[in-house]
Each structure stands twice: as C-alpha cells, then as structure tokens.
What we know:
The complex is a heterodimer. Chain A has three helices and 20 strands. By secondary structure, chain A is mostly beta strands. Chain A has two domains: 1-162, no CATH class; 166-305, no CATH class. Helices cover 41% and strands 26% of the residues of chain B. In chain B, strand 7 (156-160), helix 7 and strand 8 form a beta-alpha-beta unit. The A-B interface holds A 216, 244, 278, 280-281, 283-292, 298-299, 301-305 and B 51, 53, 72-74, 77-78, 81-83, 85, 88-89, 91-95, 98-99, 102-103, 105, 148, 152.
Amino acid sequence: MDQLQMHMLKKVADLHSVPEGAYNIRDNGTLAGRNTTANIDIISKEDKPGIDIVIKPGTKNESVHIPVIVSQSGLKDLVYNDFYIGEDADVVIVAGCGIHCGGSEDTEHDGIHTFHIGKNAKVKYVEKHYGEGEGSGGRILNPTTIVYIDENGYMEMETTQIKGVDSTIRDTKAELKDGATLIIKEKIMTHEEQYAETNFQVDLNGVGATTDVVSRSVAKGKSRQVFNSKICGNNQCYGHTECDAILMDEGHVNAVPSLDANHLDASLIHEAAIGKIAGEQLIKLMTLGLTEQEAEEQIINGFLK
Amino acid sequence: MLELQDICYQVTEDSKEKGILKHVNLKIEDSFVAITGPNGGGKSTMAKIIAGIIKPTSGKILFNGEDITELSITERANKGISFAFQQPVRFKGLTVLDLINMAHGETLSLNKACHYLSEVGLCAKDYINREINSSLSGGELKRIEIAMIIARGTKLSIFDEPEAGIDLWSFNNLIRVFEDMREKIQGSIMIISHQERILNIADRIVVLADGEVRALGTKEEVLPELFHASAEACSTLMDKIV
C-alpha cells in the first residue's frame, strides 16, 4: 500500500496497518485487499459492484473492516454492500470512505449498505467519512444504510463526518421487530460552502422495539445542513430522536424531527436545539486562561467527541 | 494585591441611569476576605468587574501594582485571577476531567485530577469521566466549580456564593474546604457569601450595599454591627405585621 492509501485508512478506519480479522479494502473502485475468517465470509457480487459479508450465527468478538478510498479525480464509485449477521452473533463492523481529490472534477462515492441482523445478534457499526485534497473538484459522499433487525437484535451505529466532504446526502432506513434496538449517534461538522443532508426513518414494528437517534452537528462558514428524522411507532415501543446543532459564522441548520404514532402504546419523543455557542460557556473557559478561539475549539471538540 | 480605585458601574434602566457600583474603593491584601451585603447590592457585579467579565464605567483596577483595567478575561486569568461562578455553566460533551485539566493548564495524571475532586467531597471515580451536562445537580456542579479553582491555584481566587445550592450536609464539608484552602493557599481568597460560618473564618469582611462599601473590618468589628442592623430590620418588619 502506498502512503496516501495508508493515510486515508487511518482517517476513515483508525487503521495503522492492514487490520486483523476479516477485511475488504476498496481502492478507486477495485479490490485492493481482502481477508476472510472461519466465521466471516466476504463474497464479491456478480450482478453489480459490491460485496456480501456473511457472518455465521454465534460469531463472537470478531470484527470486519471495509474501508473505501477514492483518490482518482472524476471517479464516480457506486457500491452495494450487504451484511448478513447470523443469530446470536456479536461483532464490530467498521466502514468508512475517504476521498482524496487532487483534480478539478467531482469525485463521488455512493455506498448502499443493507444490514440483515438475525435474532439476538448484536452489531456495532462504525462509519467515518472524510475528504481532503488540493483539487477544486467536489468531494461527494452519499451513503445509504438500510437496516432490518430481527427479534431482540441490537445495532449501534456511529456515523461521523468531520471534515472535507463538500456534499452529502445520508439516508438511513430501519425496520425493527419485537424487542429489537437501534441506537444511532451521528456527528457532523461542515465548513465553507458544504452541504450535508441527513434523512433517518425508523419503523418500530415489533412489541418493545426501541430506538434512540441522536445527531450532534456544527455548521461553520456558509455551510448548510438539513436533518430529517422520522420515527414511526407501529406497536408498543419506545423512540427518541434528538438533534443538537451549533451554529457558527453564517451556518444554516434546518432540523425536522417527526414522530408518527400509530399505536396507543407507542411512546415517542423528539428534541431539537440549535444555536450558537453560549456566551457563558466561552466566558467560563476564558476565566481558566483560554483565549476565545481556544475556548471555542474546546467546546466544539467536546461536543463532537 | 488587588486594589479597586473609584470603580463605578452604571446601567440604563427605563431610560434612567442607575448606579450598580458607586465609587467603590477597596484594597485586598489579606488572605481571606468575605464580601457580604443584601441582594442587589453589587457584590456579583464587583466580582465580574475584577475577573474582566464586565467593564466598569469608570475607575481603575490594580493587581499586584499593575493596572489591569483594560485587560481581557483571558489575560487576567493568566495573571492569576480565578473566578468561581455563582451559577456554574454546563457543557455538552466536556467531562469533569477535561475541565480540571483546562483549569490546571496542562494534562494531569488521573490520580492528581481525582485528588482535586476528593478535596471538594466528591467521590472521584464516580465523577471524573462524567459530562458537565444536565445530569449533574446544581450542588455537584458547584463543587466541581470549586475543584477547578483549587486546580488552578492562582494568586487570587474569587468565589461567588459557593454555598448557594449546596445541601446542609455538604455545607459542613464546604466550610472545611475553605478552611483548608485558607491554610494552604499562597494567595488571597475572596468569597461572596451570606453565611455566618464563612464570615466567621474571614480575616476581613466587606459589607457592600446599594453599590457602596458600607463597612470594612475584622469580623469583631463588622459582625456585631451587621447583626444589629438585621435585627433592627426584623423588628421594623415585626412592628408592621403586628
């Protein structure tokens, strides 16, 4: 692997070398490395670009890394990745996409990830998006995540986009059966003229299905963000969605939480708070000896930690 | 150490000028000074003027002989002024450890950071990684605020009503914390307080009322007068009721 590839892997998957366990590295639309284990198989799709990741029932304490790197200016990469997580499995899946754009043409990666989570299975899914490069072309990432969680299954999804992505539309849809749980933690920071749109829809179909969808974001420069989060309570269930955004400069945030209760015992809550950094927070940190700029950085770093 | 020279602070209320502080002259050289007086008397405003949060309308502030009137909050903090807020601020995401480290100015060992929390009667392991958010009670936040000031260890530490919002049990510990600080600290402590037990351990008491220094002296000099005045106020009130 060359230096640029290693650097991007570190940014999107915290990897310092080729990961342990199962992995699949996609570089400029082609396979750059793959490893499978006794319990985790990765198979290339034949009808369209992408892979199937099949995790055997009962697989415990294993991880799968599937980072994507795009460094060829002008490339539009589309990929379909399907995850089949067997019953009672307990695994960590780390995805992520880094775009390094060195040219003047737009560079784009659209990843469509579908999760089929078996009964009582537990998945932690970590996804990071990152863009860089001196080129004037746009860095565009449009991830779609579709999640089906079977009875008493559990998924925690941490999705982060902190830097360098000019335009993103992030769609996440989930359907939960009896006793299933979905926790989503989203962190976004946009700069300059960037645009980030997030659309969550969670259907709580089963008895005791639970979801918590929390987004924290910072909009700097002239960037714009849209946050749509819809929770449908179709049974006796519990859903909570929260959008917390900090505005800076001329940033713009539009938060639209939506609750759709179709059952008497559906308990749904939404919260949204948008505003600039509170003056008293800055003052407090300045009384500890920080400059206004240092105080601002500490507050933002803590908020998006 | 600290000198306020002819400090005035005026605000406009209903298009009328109102004096919050009126020609306050004060020298603080002792190690433990309590500022007391009725609500609305200007105590918190004075503390904020010393910390640089409010700019006085006129007057001068000298700190160790240097004129700091025009210095920013940050510059004053770095010269050795600490200020514990009456109402501590909450931060989503920042932890108790983050703030103790920022207060100290460099990353502390976990043991040392925990030591500051233990000083204010908090069980360190339960709190050190907690976020400074709405899950903490007012009393817990006040104690963390005090721990931050101890961690800074500056020449002048100002506390704005540290006892407010702290339960009776914790209050006894708080008195102990200040008695301890009084022994150890290498500078001055200035506490805004209404509590007799805090006034009792002060070297000097300043009574600030209606924006003016009404009394200044040792507790033997000031306290009898103070309690006599409040007894009078009470009897006047009683007369009205009866």
